[in-house]
Amino acid sequence: ACGNGSATQSNQNQTQAESSAPANGSSNSDKKILIAYFSHSGNTEAVAQQIHDMIGGDIVKIETVNPYPSDYHECTEVAKAEKDSNARPQLSTVIDNMNDYDTIFIGYPIWWHTAPMAIGTFLESYDLSGKTIVPFCTSGGSDISESMPMIKELCQKATIKEGLTASKNDVEKTKAWLQKLGYVK
Ligand SMILES: Cc1cc2nc3c(=O)[nH]c(=O)nc-3n(C[C@H](O)[C@H](O)[C@H](O)COP(=O)(O)O)c2cc1C
């Protein structure tokens, strides 16, 4: 029942079969993949859904308890203050079955030349020992490398794969990246 797309979250009071496999075949089809993403204005969500369409697994949106302002300028101010204080905004998204996953795609927009602080909250909420972390981002021009010091700091016990900077129109680039990493034939 888990192959259809969403991870088990605590607010849904569901249990998930240990043996469930990702939705479709890939070179990693014996492993379980979670695609977790934060997205404020939909760009990263679109890329996350493209990745999900190509590799299957479970997909979950990382959401904060306090939503960010929809006004762009206001949002940048909130995000800047959070970045400057290295805040850990509280999340409403909780993955109850993180032990089921050994590969976690983590997607986010670049905010102030790094990942949103909600990604910090998310990655610090779980024991990532031995897991594989696959970062991807969208941006207005920044490269994902700007966020890698933060991701490396947060995922010290995990193996971190080469990340992707993409837009929602970059389907072929995203596919080529997944092929290079071995998730798509
Ligand atoms: C608070 C905030 C900060 C941003 N900082 C950057 C930045 O430092 N570099 C950049 O290239 N784009 C920056 N952007 C643009 C976003 O990364 C870009 O629009 C992204 O695709 C948004 O993804 P989303 O639609 O999934 O939220 C910023 C946007 C916001 C709202």
Automatic annotation (TrEMBL):
Coiled-coil regions listed: none
Cross-referenced SUPFAM superfamilies: Flavoproteins
GO molecular function: FMN binding; oxidoreductase activity, acting on NAD(P)H
PANTHER family xrefs: EXPORTED PROTEIN-RELATED, FLAVODOXIN-LIKE DOMAIN-CONTAINING PROTEIN
UniProt keyword annotation of Signal present: yes
Full protein name: Flavodoxin
Domain of life: Bacteria
Residues of the Flavodoxin-like domain: 33-185
Source organism: Megamonas hypermegale
Key words of the record: Signal
Region entry Disordered, spans: 8-27
Gene3D superfamilies in the record: 3.40.50.360
